[in-house]
Design a protein that fits this description.
- This protein is α/β, with parallel strands linked by helices and 585 residues long.
- Helix content is 45%, strand content 21%.
- An eight-stranded mixed β-barrel has the order 13-14-16-17-18-19-20-21, surrounded by four helices.
- β13 and β14 form a beta hairpin.
- α7 runs antiparallel to α8 and α13 packs parallel to α15.
- The structure holds ligand C2E and magnesium ion (2 copies).
Amino acid sequence: MASGIIRHKRRHLLHGSEELFRALIQNSTDIITIHDAEGITIYETPSASRILGYLPGALIGKSPFDAIHPKDVEGTRVAFHSVLEGSREVLPVEFRFHHADGSWIWLEGVGANLMHHYGIEGIVLTSRDITPRKNAEKQLNYLANHDALTGLPNRLLMEDRLRQAIAQAHRNGYLAAVMLIDLDQFKMVNESLGHHAGDLLLMEVARRIKQCAREGDTIARLGGDEFTVILHNAGTVEHVSSIAQMILEEFSRPLTIDRQELFTSASIGISIYPADGDEPDALIKHADTAMYSAKKLGRSNHRFFTDDLNAKVRERIVLENGLRTAVQRNELRLYYQPKVNVASGRIIGAEALLRWQHPQLGLVSPEIFIPIAEETGLIVPIGEWVLRTACNQICVWHNAGHELHVAVNLSPYQLREQDLCDRITEIMLQTGVPANQLEVEITESVLVENAENAIAVLNTLKSQGIAIAIDDFGTGYSSLSYLGRFPLDILKIDQSFVRNITTDEGNTAIVRAILALAKSLGMKVVAEGVESNTQLSFLSAHGCDFAQGYFFSPPVEAERFVQLVKAGAMAKTAPESIRLFKRNT
Ligand code: C2E
Ligand code: MG
Ligand code: MG
């Protein structure tokens, strides 16, 4: 009896199957499309235009792959071909489809092969709009990876980023750094002012840490009052140390929370990849250990995990602090290295080279302290001291009847100072130095970095009668075309070319070319770092004007220098050794 009713209903359904089909299609919330073996759409349901925003029929005759997100094309193509080949188990694929308004709609599609089905003869694809679900997933993912209070990455995401940072640093040979920042006495704020104030404080702290990091670095909150900064490409240990110092200084400014001024401080522990480990866990653990030793030092300190690095940073701090008072304490010395006329063998002048007589370290090399002076801005007063001392010395020699040209090195940082020319004029007037006996040496980088400014400054100096030399020529990255644009008188061939002048064919060719170039531009040439007779003979044979190097004399004190001048044509002196404090890195 019951089966009779079902049979009756089925017959009835079959009768009206076309209407039934139309009704189902009209009301479907899924998109149903039919494709030929190439994938071209041959049929679409009205829902397609409702969901995707195109005019009805717009997909017909086109390949859906053109509108699928490039990252999803591969997956959907594979799925399509599996259906075409009649694979039974085809899982639903998720992909992004271009909406008419330019956004992406997430679809989940399943296919059925009805190629041999009369009246259909195609691949039937049923796709469902899953954009809301995907957005919810994204939101969940964000929540799972971020700290709700500050919006910063949480521990989970931080570890992931650290893993990436390690891989990147490994590939490129960088250092990566992990800083663990812990607020000092945060508990007290929480307990005395309440959790709301504590929250506001943490948010402000997050903002301040962000200001110190570069784009691309990761700042995370690990929970409580613990933050992490990952420097993905940390540069040098000194750079890491200066960032930690910057963060600590940010903390030392008072914070206004709920109209109350609060003072906080922090302790920072730092571990470095690869020195302190090559796994996130080890680096975080070591940064933590370093943080505890920073805390032990008292508030507002940072420590590295490795003691050597602490020593390096301490040495840098010692040098930096010492340099601040070096001028007042009269610890700077100017040495003079003879510049010799290649043809006559006579000393025509000197290059003034700076040394620092450090009370504990002895004579410190300019290669160590000039970069620190430049970073701290101390190069400006130090550079002035050099100029004044050199000018005074020229006058002393001038008065004793020696006409000597003295070259002073100018740092690019000095050239950036607006009043450099005024300062030099003032020093020249005060010391009464004859301008034609003063030279300045600048490096190629000056000409490249801020050419317009450099041209103006050099023209002013030149108009006062000062000769201008380009130092370490050939080591910069500039094009030769700039040479003609600048008022240059002297070109100094870098010692790296002179070193193998007769043994390395490349260097021989370069030195020859530099000499020819200088001659055609009307410039004189000084070869730096001449250490042997062979080098000197080569330079002489190729028309080099002047030479400077240990072959004649190392840089010496003024009294010794004048003795060399008095001795007449330079004899081939054995190099005098001066002990300089240099880092062995
Ligand atoms: P620079 O201007 O290229 O000076 C030449 C350097 O080569 C000097 O090193 C000199 O002692 C060294 N030298 C000279 N002859 C020879 C040689 O035959 N063989 C070798 N191997 N080396 C030789 P120093 O005095 O250590 O100075 C290093 C750099 O520090 C200088 O390079 C210059 O760039 C900078 N510097 C020195 N004094 C000053 C200064 O007063 N102001 C500024 N801004 N920089 C300075
Ligand atoms: Mg020089
Ligand atoms: Mg040089």
